[in-house]
Amino acid sequence: MPQPCYTVPMRPLCLSLLLLCLCGMGRSQKKNDVDVAEMKAHRLESTLAVDGTLKVNSSKPLKGIVLYFDFLSADKEVLATEKALVTEETVKAGQDQPFHVESRFPVGSVRFKVRAFDGSDRELRLGNPGPFIIE
């Protein structure tokens, strides 16, 4: 007596997988509030000069921008963190915000990463946070 063959019909299975993929694509991905457009750091004896430009993408104006610089060793360990006020002014979407910051130079640091917050200490989604090389 032949044994029954249990197979899954391929057409409904393919259609189901296609619908699952389309549902996943339909979700909107959150865009960054701020992108690092440019960032350069130069060591000056015991201080560090950082110049950069931020591009604001937030749908709402940002009331101030504060950056935190996490200085990293060659082993990628955080040696120190420095806080710097970029602006207290309101920055609108699409606006570029150039900045110049000088801070103490943590001995042994070779690169750094950046985190961004608004004036009320809300962390912002930041595009291209680094790490950046210290020249």
Task: Explain the layout of strands and helices.
Elements: H1 10-25, E1 34-44, E2 47-56, E3 62-72, E4 78-91, E5 96-104, E6 111-118, E7 126-127, E8 132-133
Parallel strand pairs: 1-7
Antiparallel strand pairs: 1-2, 2-5, 3-4, 3-6, 6-8
Walk me through the structure.
By secondary structure, the protein is mainly beta. It has one helix spanning 10-25, and strands spanning 34-44, 47-56, 62-72, 78-91, 96-104, 111-118, 126-127, 132-133. Strands 5-2-1-7 form a 4-stranded mixed β-sheet, with no helix packed on it. Strands 4-3-6-8 form a 4-stranded antiparallel β-sheet, with no helix packed on it. A hairpin with a 5-residue loop joins strand 3 (62-72) and strand 4 (78-91). The longest helix is centred in the N-terminal third of the chain and has 16 residues, at 10-25. The mean pLDDT is 86.
What strand line-up does the widest sheet have?
A: 5-2-1-7
Pick out the low-confidence regions: none
The main pleated sheet reads as: 4 strands, mixed
Shape: flat
Query: Please, how many helices?
Result: 1
| Helical/strand content category | mainly beta
Q: Enter the CATH topology name.
A: Immunoglobulin-like
Short description:
Helices cover 12% and strands 50% of the residues.
